[in-house]
Specification:
By secondary structure, this protein is an all-beta fold. About 0% of the residues lie in helices and about 50% in strands. The strands form four sheets. Strands 4-13-12-6-10-8 form a six-stranded mixed beta sheet, with no helix packed on it. The chain has a five-stranded antiparallel beta sheet with strand order 3-5-11-7-9, with no helix packed on it. The longest helix is centred in the N-terminal third of the chain and has 4 residues. The termini are far apart.
Length: about 200
């Protein structure tokens, strides 16, 4: 983006008047435009419950990415990773561990094709280890200039949160109530049931 401003010769411009600055942007059509999306399989979970996160990438740019696209997933405290399933052509490590830890995924061969939509990078299986809200953030670490140094495009990162689920409400035990009366020549018996 190239910006030009009138600095002298017009008193209005010293006050920031409209029309005293102009800019033009030239888009680089020779670069990929990678975007990452992170989703969770549930919005809330209690301690000890399993959860899963899925990362996908898309390329809305006019050209494929270079080989070696990399993605990093920052697993927070409160999650115990129990396994990872990498997408086609992707490798990810480590496969297990307690947060906080970073799972790194790389597409070692091939590229993310131009126009690719929601290509699966990895599915991460985990167990929630506390009852706090956890937020898992993933980012594109390499393969797109807009995701590197300098101002990073918003499409280069994505997050998903799982909140604390409310504990189950205990149901108090009710009184015993007779539900049947059996009568025979030997006597009578009452069957009772305690409603829970």
């Amino acid at each position: 983006t190239n910006t030009a401003s009138i600095t002298t010769g017009d008193a209005r411009c010293s006050a920031g008047a409209q029309g005293c600055t102009a800019s033009a942007t030239v888009l680089d059509i020779s670069a990929p435009a990678l975007a990452i999306t992170k989703t969770a399989d549930k919005s809330s979970a209690r301690q000890g419950e399993p959860v899963a996160f899925t990362l996908t990438v898309s390329n809305t740019g006019p050209v494929p990415s270079v080989a070696g696209v990399s993605v990093e997933d920052a697993v927070p405290a409160g999650l115990q990773v129990t396994g990872v399933t990498a997408g086609n052509g992707w490798t990810c490590a480590p496969g297990t561990g307690a947060g906080p830890l970073t799972i790194s995924c790389t597409k070692g061969a091939g590229s993310v094709a131009a126009g690719a939509i929601d290509e699966t990078v990895v599915t991460i299986a985990a167990t929630k280890t506390d009852d706090n809200t956890v937020t898992n953030v993933a980012r594109i670490a390499g393969g797109d200039p807009a995701c590197g140094a300098g101002p990073v495009a918003a499409r280069c990162s994505s997050s998903a949160s799982i909140s604390a689920a409310a504990p189950p409400v205990p149901v108090p035990a009710g009184p015993w109530w007779p539900i049947a009366l059996l009568v025979s020549a030997a006597g009578a018996w009452a069957l009772r049931r305690r409603w829970a």
